[in-house]
Amino acid sequence: MHDIVTLHVNDWKQQLKKGTLELAVLALLKAKRSYGLELLERLNEMEIEVSDGSIYPLLSRLRVEKKVSTEWVDEDMGHAHKYYALTPHGNRILRGMLAAWSDYAAAINRVAGKADNHE
Amino acid sequence: MNNISSDEVEDFLRRFRRGLAALPADIREDLVSEARSHIQDRLTQGKLDLASAFGSPEAYASRFLTEDAFQTAVTRDRPWQLVSVLLSKTRSSALVVFAVLPLAVIEIMAVALIVVGVFKPFSRDHIGLFLHADGTFGVLGWISNPGSMREVLGYSAMPIFIFGGLLLFWVSNRLLLRMARGELAGIRHTR
Fold this sequence. Notes:
The structure holds two protein chains of two kinds.
Chain A: H1 2-31, E1 34-35, H2 36-45, H3 52-64, E2 68-74, E3 80-86, H4 88-117
Antiparallel strand pairs in A: 1-3, 2-3
Chain B: H1 6-19, H2 25-45, H3 50-54, H4 57-76, H5 79-89, H6 93-119, E1 127-131, E2 137-142, E3 150-151, H7 157-189
Antiparallel strand pairs in B: 1-2, 1-3
């Protein structure tokens, strides 16, 4: 029984992560321009587990949608890195997403609070 | 721990590049260079596991292609491109058979209606709404030999066919566009 609950919760967490990964990536890029692996490691440090193969299709889409810009930088490390930076358009989208997230999280917390009170 | 030879890395990148063949050369090379840079970093860290990180190079390439195809079709809103992408890349075959194909056929019929409407002045007796002698429906559009049927719309068939065709085309195109957007959102949320 416990395994089924864990499985269900893990599946739900996966869905939640997929729906919010774009927000997390844009927020990290607002703080600092980064290349793919750097972003991946920062996300994983924050316990947002993302596989190596998942980050680049997302970044590619964000570039096509002009939410991020890219620049190859040779940092004297033997090879160059492709850096991603938030564009003004991406920043406007991020602000909207953060406001929506804040409202939604507050609503869910209110609902969760009611559930806690009936435990 | 790296258990991967440089030959395996090159083979992965070669197959990844081949998988991206449908993309413009500059974008393809950019993605391959980025994958190479990532792999070099992982090799330096001693944490390279190509199979678990990316899966097969073909499957990894298809993640860029499918999304790119839908994104391009939705953004550019070119009707034939939209139909082509939906027919070839929609994940549910039921959706293709029961929604995409019928809407594509409706789009073709709408174009035919517009063409017929434009040619009305040049083929007055063969284009229009034809009724049998008893008043029942015969043919809508073009007929080579009307026989005993009579055409009832006259020149008003021209605007009716043209605007009717345009409306039909617009509605079916909007529905296809909505389907493509739904499919795109689905692709993004299942990865």
